[in-house]
Amino acid sequence: MRREQRLTGDKRFSRIRQERRAWSNRLLVLKKVPNGLDTSRFGFVVGKRVGGAVVRNRVKRRLREAVRLTPVESGWDIVLIARRDAPVSPYSALCHATQDLLRRSKVLSKPPDSEQTAVDPGRETGG
Question: What is the CATH topology of the domain spanning 3-104?
């Protein structure tokens, strides 16, 4: 994940955590606010309830990778908050949970349509 996609600073986190609207599942909670930028930024919160420092850092690395592999619309500050079951879940479940929340919160980019090359009927196609 690129540095400009990382959300840093207590003020930014506080602003997003005060947001009332949240989406959640068994592993994660997602909160978002618009940021007015050309990119979306992500922050990850993994509390001490989840485990020790090694466990918390592993969960954050997995979440960063799950977000990196998922196309997200630009213009959002998003915070993903890990729940207690996050460290014991397989990586695939964490990826699925992340994608589920991004889809439900409507920030998941739509996959590009499979554009078929349209041939102009008035033109010959070569040969």
Answer: Ribosomal Protein S5; domain 2 (3.30.230)
Which structure tokens are listed for 85?
Answer: 């079951």
Degrees, nearest 5: CA angle 73-74-80: 75
Which pTM value belongs to this model? Answer: 0.80
**pLDDT per residue as tens digits for the range 71-101:** 999 999 999 999 999 999 999 999 999 999 9
- What's the rounded Cα separation, in Å, for the pair 73 and 108? 6
Annotated domain spans of the chain: 3-104
Q: Identify which of 110, 72, 85 has the alpha carbon closest to the alpha carbon of residue 24.
A: 85
Q: What angle do CA 4, 77, 94 make, to 5 degrees?
A: 90
Q: pLDDT by residue (tens digit) across 44-54?
A: 999 999 999 99
Residues found in the chain: 127
